[in-house]
Design brief:
- It contains one helix and ten strands.
- The chain is mainly β.
- It has a single domain, classed as Porin (Beta Barrel), CATH 2.40.160.
- Strands 1, 2, 3, 4, 5, 6, 7, 8, 9 and 10 form a ten-stranded antiparallel sheet that branches.
- A hairpin with a 4-residue loop joins strand 6 and strand 7.
- The two termini are about 35 Å apart.
Length: about 200
C-alpha cells in the first residue's frame, strides 16, 4: 500500500510539477550506493553491506522567478554488484534489480552565474522482488535521506550535477507468496546508505 502510494505521488510530481513550475530540470543520474546495516526478521539477525549502481530519471522543479526553493524527485532501478552477510561474500549474479524512488524539498544557493549549491532532504523507497516457479518474495524498504550537491551550468540549458546523499532506512516489509498463499512479515531494518552521484539535466 505504501509503495503504491509513493509511486503514485512520484508519477504525479513528474507530470504535474513541470506544468506549474517556473524552472524545471529533467535528466538522468547514476553513481554508487554503499550501504551497511543490520536486518532483523523474527529472531534472525544479519549484519550486511552492499554495493549497488542506480540508474534514475531525475528532476527538479523551482517555483517563482529565480526561486531558491523547489522539489527534487527521482525514480529508476538499482543494480546489485556485491553483498556480504555476517562477513561472508554473497553471490549476487542472480539477484534482481530493485525499484528505487525518492522525493523531497531542495534549496538552491547561487554562488555565481556558473555554479549553484543544492541542499535537500526527503523520503526514499526501495523495492525488490525475487521469483521462481513456486512463488515470490517482495521486500520494501522505506527511509529518509539528506543531499548536498554542486550544480555547474554548462550553458543556458545544460546543467551538470555532482553530489552525495546520506540515507537511513528504518522500515522493512516482506511479502512471501508460496503456492498461491501470501504471508506478510514486518521486520526491523537499520541501514545506512552513502550515495555519491552525478547527473546531467536539461533546464527549461
Amino acid at each position: 500500500m505504501i509503495k503504491k502510494l509513493l509511486v503514485t505521488v512520484l508519477l504525479a510530481l513528474c507530470v504535474v510539477l513541470p506544468t506549474f513550475a517556473s524552472e524545471n530540470w529533467i535528466g538522468v543520474s547514476t553513481g554508487g550506493d554503499f550501504s551497511f546495516g543490520e536486518n532483523t526478521i523474527g529472531s534472525d539477525e544479519t549484519e550486511y553491506s552492499t554495493f549497488n549502481v542506480p540508474l534514475q530519471a531525475s528532476g527538479m522543479s523551482f517555483f517563482g522567478e529565480d526561486s531558491s526553493v523547489g522539489l527534487s524527485y527521482n525514480v529508476g532501478l538499482s543494480f546489485p554488484i556485491s553483498r556480504t552477510e555476517d562477513g561472508e561474500k554473497v553471490d549476487t549474479s542472480d539477484n534482481p534489480s530493485s525499484f528505487v524512488a525518492s522525493a523531497g524539498p531542495v534549496f538552491r544557493i547561487s554562488n555565481s552565474g556558473a555554479m549553484d549549491l543544492l541542499v535537500g532532504a526527503g523520503f526514499r523507497l526501495a523495492s525488490t522482488t525475487w521469483s521462481n516457479d513456486l512463488g515470490e518474495i517482495k521486500t520494501t524498504l522505506i527511509g529518509v535521506y539528506g543531499d548536498v550537491a554542486i550544480a555547474s551550468n554548462m550553458n543556458k540549458n545544460i546543467v551538470m550535477v555532482a553530489g552525495a546523499k546520506l540515507g537511513f532506512n528504518y522500515s522493512k516489509k516482506m511479502e512471501v507468496t508460496l503456492l498461491g498463499f501470501t504471508n506478510t512479515i514486518e521486520g526491523e531494518n537499520s541501514e545506512f546508505i552513502v550515495n555519491p552521484y552525478m547527473g546531467v539535466y536539461y533546464k527549461f
